[in-house]
Design goal:
Elements: H1 2-17, H2 22-25, E1 29-31, H3 41-47, E2 60-63, E3 76-80, E4 83-89, E5 101-105, H4 108-115
Antiparallel strand pairs: 1-5, 2-3, 3-4, 4-5
């Protein structure tokens, strides 16, 4: 069932992207799927011939204001492996499977313009209010 859901989402995004201008089509969009795999999923993958090619670890640090201004707007400011990202929901883009679609801003200037205020450029020496 999970594979069918992913396939349906990919088809939906492909059809939607055909109606966009080239500039809109180049925006980075994150589609997040959350699911709980069965306890034997690794064995099932191996039985199908899957091989582990590599292992990747990421370090994420999420920030918000003391009044939770970002999370209340479903905005997620994070520093992934030291690089700043802001995930913002794409307006009116909820698929019938209820997956949320986010656009990722990765330029500090664009992030600050979207939020309307300055954000810390890194997490090493956070100013008051963060």
């Amino acid at each position: 069932a999970m594979c069918c859901g992913i396939w349906a989402r990919l088809q939906y995004e492909a059809e939607k992207s055909q109606n966009l201008t080239p500039a809109q089509n180049n925006e980075e969009v994150e589609i997040e799927f959350k699911f709980t795999p069965p306890s034997d999923f690794l064995q099932k993958l191996e039985d199908l011939g899957a091989e582990k090619l590599k292992f990747k670890t990421m370090k994420d640090v999420y920030l918000d204001t003391p009044k939770f201004e970002l999370i209340r707007k479903d905005n997620w400011l994070r520093y992934r492996d030291g690089k700043i990202e802001l995930k913002v929901p794409v307006e009116s883009e909820h698929h019938k499977a209820r997956n949320t679609v986010y656009k990722e801003l990765t330029c500090l200037r664009d992030i600050e313009q979207h939020l309307g205020y300055k954000v810390p450029p890194d997490v090493e020496n956070l100013p008051d209010g963060w």
